[in-house]
Structure formats: C-alpha cells, structure tokens
C-alpha cells in the first residue's frame, strides 16, 4: 500500500511545491465532475502547491488496497511512466517513480518515503516526503529534489470515502510556466478521477 500511495504522490509531487505547512491560502482552481482542485502559493517557490478533493463510493479498505498495488496504481496516477517499491520497513515504505514530461522537457523521477497513520474515525493519512538521495540518480532523468504531501482518507458513511490528495514540490531543473501551471491542476484532477473509477468498479 505504501508503494502506491507513495507513487501517487510522486506523480503529483513532480510539479508542486515544498512544504505543506507553507501552503495556506488555498483558492479553488477547478471544479469538474465531482473533483475540486485548489492551489496555493508557497513562500520562496515559483511553483504552486495543489490539493484535490473527491468523494468516492467505496470504503477505506478498497481504496487502501488500490494504493498498495504499486504497479497497478501507475494506471491511474497522472503522468506515471513507471513505479516500483524499493523498501518496506514496519509501517514505512519507499517507492521510486518516473514521471512523463512532454517533449522536449526532461523526465523526472522521485523517491518518496511514505508513512501511514490510522485515524480514530477509521480513516488514514499517508504522509509523503521526498528522499532524493535514497538511491543514486538515474541517467536521463532529473531527480525531484523536494516533495511534501499527503493522502487523507476519511470515511463519510454509507460506503463513501472523502479522499484528499495534497502535494508541494520543487521539480528540479527548469519547467516551462505553461507546463507547471497545467500540471498542478491536471495531476490532482486526473489522479483522483482515475482512483475513483478504479475503486467504484470493485
């Protein structure tokens, strides 16, 4: 589970900002098909943090199982090119992901350390932190130097779970402004739509 969660975060991470605590002024950027995406400026960064929120007609266990399927999760995570589990230790997981970028932008990769916290209401929070030096850099990829985020699953009753996906990152290298601006909206929007579709088919 940590694998997929970590990976989902990876893809999202690829274009946001650095430090969830720094993103506070959330503004609604897009509301489409039941998914709301909010953006926030982050002091000291030129990239915005993003937060996506959606209600999914599936219980926490179902969504958790999808997130634990590391390889399978790449199918519904935005811009995911590859994803694999590196290490599991107790409740902690480390994953490696490659993020696709449109030509001629160089692709990114990211190593994410995921810790899972169960909440009293039966939900869970997966905390995501980038660890760029956990594995050697890969030729042809730009390693994401900084990423902070979380997945939050809150049971709402009647088999419905509210899912929040939030990420702030520094993508490393240079990213065209048009791509950065579209990624911070598309990443949470498409990832949550994909997760919802997979979960509600089960």
Automatic annotation (TrEMBL):
GO terms for molecular function: lipid binding. This is START domain-containing protein. PANTHER family: PHOSPHATIDYLCHOLINE TRANSFER PROTEIN, START DOMAIN-CONTAINING PROTEIN. Keywords: Signal. One of its GO terms (cellular component) is cytoplasm. The lineage of its organism: Bacteria, Pseudomonadati, Pseudomonadota, Gammaproteobacteria, Pseudomonadales. SUPFAM superfamilies: Bet v1-like. Residues 24-202 form the START domain. InterPro entries: START-like_dom_sf (IPR023393), START_dom_prot (IPR028347), START_lipid-bd_dom (IPR002913), START_lipid_transfer (IPR051213). It comes from the Bacteria.
